[in-house]
Amino acid sequence: MNTAVESVEGNLSQQYPDSRGHFGIYGGSFIAETLMDPVSELQEAYARYRLDNEFIAEFEWELKNFVGRPNPLYHARRMSEELGGAQIWLKREDLNHTGAHKINNTVGQALLARRMGKKRIIAETGAGQHGVATATVCARWGMECIVYMGEEDIVRQAPNVFRMKLLGAKVVPVTSGSRTLKDALNEAMRDWVGNVDDTFYIIGTAAGPHPYPAMVRDFNSVIGKEIKEQSLEHTGRLPDAVIACVGGGSNAIGAFHPFLDDKEVELIGVEAGGDGLETGRHAAPLSAGKPGVLHGNRTYLMEDEAGQIIETHSVSAGLDYPGVGPEHSWLKDIGRAKYVAATDAEALDATHKLCRIEGIIPALESAHALAYAMNIAPSLGTDKNIVVNLSGRGDKDINTLADIEGITL
Amino acid sequence: MSQSRIAASFAKDSNRKLLVPYITAGDPNLDTTLDLMHTLVKAGADVIELGIPFSDPMADGPVIQAACERALKNNVTLVQVIETVKRFRETNNETAVVLMGYMNPVEILGYKKFAGLASEAGVDGVLTVDLPPEEADELVAELDAVGLDSIFLLSPTTPDSRVKHVCEKASGYIYYVSLKGVTGAANLDTAEVASKVEHIKSFANIPVAVGFGIRDAESAAAISVTADAIVVGSVLVSLVADHGDNPDQLHQSMFDTVNAMRLAMDETGAA
Ligand SMILES: Cc1ncc(COP(=O)(O)O)c(C=O)c1O
């Protein structure tokens, strides 16, 4: 493995990944032979439809009419005043149908599955947001839906489990390994290996074998495109920084990608710092991990000295993942994006502040991005504009929040 | 370098089909693994596939997943697995040993270091399940440099164009995964496997082994009619799960199961 950082020139947003899904040394297709054929079938289908005008038009129609886009770029004035520095703008992905950015991707992949003639859909989920978004599109188009979810997450995210069932999905508890998101992903991969002929695997984040990282990024890039247009509309210029939380990295890469070539815009990904990076109890592979191979791609991972994947810790189930999409690993190494961490405590504090000051209950995942923005805003001038991607709403987290305060709902 | 142990095993007797048992190293501990390797040889094994335990064995069914979890409870590492092969070589210099596992432990150790340690210890080949030939150039080069074989998988979903490409990249033997599924699944169609193996042989100039879904002497014998070698894993790993705390029973049941396959294959070969 060549670990030297290549010097990167030219157009970052158009040149990557290469034809086999590599972002520098990251990405690729590290999968068992049985999956090579369905994955290359998917690569071909995506390469074709991403340029197909009819496909693009249908995707955009669904985003507008089913998802409810565009959602606002909202100036959080009271929050900005309170912080006394930079202006905070919230990209309101929480207002999408199903309450998070995840639906952008599931609509795109479901349309692709339909064109490929696949009728059986499988997915993994952690917080349940991707599971709900997948169950939703399967109901929308009459497809069978099976969602793998770690036993531990099923307990933590009970309301979303019920939503999936209401929408007609079958939720399969995963009891192997740490019983969280990574194990759900393993189990979905195993299902796929056994059912390659009729099954489409809708991965919920910008990770996995090629073409998933690029495809999930592209379906979520509507976030960054809207931020760009809306910033120009509201402020007459591009934002000074775009900040997003990073679990697998789909909302962040969707927000960042349209800005990759606008070098004056700082891109900041915020990982789950859990109890604090120094404790080892976190979910921050970019901040404190090493490159390795997992779930079909080479990327930064949380792993021990012997290359075993280690358990992660975060108050937010959606960030509780030991890997990260390969494009983020590459953006980190070439220095185009910066990655930091916010702890559980900081995220919880940001959650309460946003509730009280702006009347918005954020998802615990999104609250990590907000927490970092709140840290840096006071030291910046009032003429600076910071966009925080509010990737989802916090209704799903009320049990967790109540638990922490010792309240039973 | 003279002929490799893998090539020598296949060359020994053109009538004898090779039997390749798989066990997960360190399940339930490395001393037991070492003893089991010798038992497997006594029962008729020609090549041993030794599994490197991994926290996220995505291509494996519940039986081998559980074996990985048992091994990792004792923090068994790749370096320790390689050391176990070295101990095996103290008394056995004929039976080929192939390490089988996932990429990440190899990535972390480093390709060059891994290849060096493995060849010094007397490992003969390496199969990394989540490393398709397309991503394998660097590792294959390091293995090649120290005379280790790079074994690759083919599956029922592999199109002909890829079969050819994989056969060119592979050395030692080709491992045909006889069903669409993870290890331990059981829906093997002997006739279909036979015709697929014949087809692969038209592309390959190295032997073809068949595995995944072989559960007993009967299926081993049936598949061995066309295949050059039979790989059997989950059935044996189940024995470790059942008798791991009782060495006598474990070795007896392991010997009986593998030996029954050996005898059935020899009988079919002689007929
Ligand atoms: C609201 C919300 N934000 C963020 C994430 C993290 O995923 P990603 O990093 O792919 O955006 C999740 C995952 O469940 C989520 O539900």
Question: What does this entry look like structurally?
Answer:
The complex is a heterodimer of chains A (409) and B (271). Chain A is α/β, with parallel strands linked by helices and 409 residues long. Helix content of chain A is 43%, strand content 18%. Chain A has helices spanning 12-15, 33-49, 53-67, 77-83, 102-115, 129-141, 151-156, 158-166, 181-194, 212-220, 222-235, 250-256, 285-288, 326-334, 344-358, 364-376, 398-404, and strands spanning 22-23, 26-30, 73-75, 87-92, 120-125, 144-150, 170-174, 199-201, 241-245, 266-274, 290-294, 296-301, 337-343, 385-390. In chain A, helix 6 packs parallel to helix 8. Chain A is globular and about 55 Å long. A 9-stranded parallel β-sheet of chain B has the order 5-4-3-2-1-9-8-7-6. The longest helix of chain B is centred in the last third of the chain and has 24 residues, at 247-270. The chains are: A alpha/beta (409), B alpha/beta (271). Chain A binds chain B through residues 1-2, 20, 28-34, 36-38, 176-177, 182-183, 186, 189-190, 193-197, 290-296, 298, 301, 303, 305-310, and chain B through 54-62, 65, 69, 72, 75, 77-79, 102-111, 129-132, 134-135, 138, 152-159, 162, 166, 177, 180-182, 185. Pyridoxal-5'-phosphate binds at residues 100, 102, 126-127, 129-130, 205, 245-252, 318-319, 363, 365-366, 391-392 of chain A.
